[in-house]
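Tutorial, part two.
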Amino acid sequence: MLIYLLALLGETCSRVQYTISGMSSGGYMTGQVHVAYSSYISGAGILVAGPYYCAQNSLVRANTICTYNNNPIDVTPLINYTLSMAAQGLIDPVSYLSSTTVYLFSGALDELMQPAITQATYNYYKAFIPESKIFNVVDPYCNHAWPTKTSNKPCWYYGRYYINNCGYDGAGIMLTTLLGPLYQRNSFNQSNLFPFPQKAYADVVKIHMDNYGYIYIPDNCKQDASICRLHVTLHGCGQSYQNVKLVYMLGIGLLEWADSNDIVVIFPQTVNSKFSPGGCWDLDGYNGPDYALKTGGQVKAIHTMSQDYVGIVSNIFK
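Running the prediction step on this input gives:
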């Protein structure tokens, strides 16, 4: 019994609490990591994406019900699946979700994740989280994009990069919602953005992730990253390093806030494959039927690297 308690105490002490965000397929994956590992996650920002397990392990559903659809989505089967998986220990107990904060963003003009899809995300979370802790923002002029104040693409634009100027600092509002009051954003130092080997955390070839992810390390976090908070953010389809280099990482406005608030940011990366030509995250089971569970290849890889963010930083500066 004593050994068990000591082991449990060690696990508790070593847990890294973090926040996570993502857009489009990255938003779907954000929901999957959030629900699977909710005991570790204090807040999730899901932009222009549908609810947990929307595709129900079906490519057909992913391409019909969960995209290009403006008919109401019944979230009851998704809620029941969540409860069943938690009862089997395949995801964290749903009680942890109630203490987390969720920021949702969608665009009324979204041509890909239409309003009914993103409304279903809100309806799903209401089953587990008090409505006072769910912040649901719907921009009347936004298409399928991460909203900023700086992009050269107008808010209504639908196309490559998916980062639009909506006069709305999505990154800042999202982080403030999840973390509380922050120091004002400032300029960031691009030289503080480093690659790190994702293959240390998973068989990246098998699960269609890149050999390298990226991590932003503010100056104050270089000597001892444990004093800094961690945020993980997930690109959408067509936004990976393989497709657009650093455009997503530098363009969404997140690093300006991270730099002024000593937040380490991890940018996990996918690769294009026959299962996902645009490098989308697995929202339909192309890596196997456990894709939305703790054992899901990409879910587990993202969470595992988050738990070792101090080690990642130490290896860069050793």
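The chain has twelve helices and ten strands. In part three we will examine how such features are distributed along the chain.
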